[in-house]
């Protein structure tokens, strides 16, 4: 599996939702709807935190958790 496929699918999935979806990798915050931001961030194999805020946050959290798991990316969805 290429990381490119994961990045495109993550971004496309995020774009289906109105909620703000932000990936935190160490001290960087990236808008998951930005393919460029994902390219520069998903290079390391570290763990990530996902922050979701908005009117469809619950659905967005489920969809994002599924797509990250599908590509074997270690993600923690933060419930706030």
TrEMBL record:
Protein name per UniProt: Phosphotransferase system, phosphocarrier protein HPr
Key word Transferase present: yes
Keyword terms, alphabetized: Transferase
Superkingdom of the organism of origin: Bacteria
Record GO terms (molecular function): transferase activity
Family annotation (Pfam families): PTS-HPr
InterPro entries: HPr-like (IPR000032), HPr-like_sf (IPR035895)
HPr domain segment(s): 9-69
């Amino acid at each position: 599996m290429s990381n490119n496929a994961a990045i495109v699918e993550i971004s496309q999935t995020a774009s289906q939702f109105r909620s703000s979806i932000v990936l935190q990798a160490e001290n960087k915050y990236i808008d998951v709807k930005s393919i460029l931001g994902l390219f520069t961030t998903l290079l390391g194999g570290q763990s990530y935190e996902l922050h979701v805020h908005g009117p469809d946050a619950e659905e967005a959290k489920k969809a994002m958790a599924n797509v990250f798991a599908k590509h074997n990316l270690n993600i923690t969805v933060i419930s706030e």
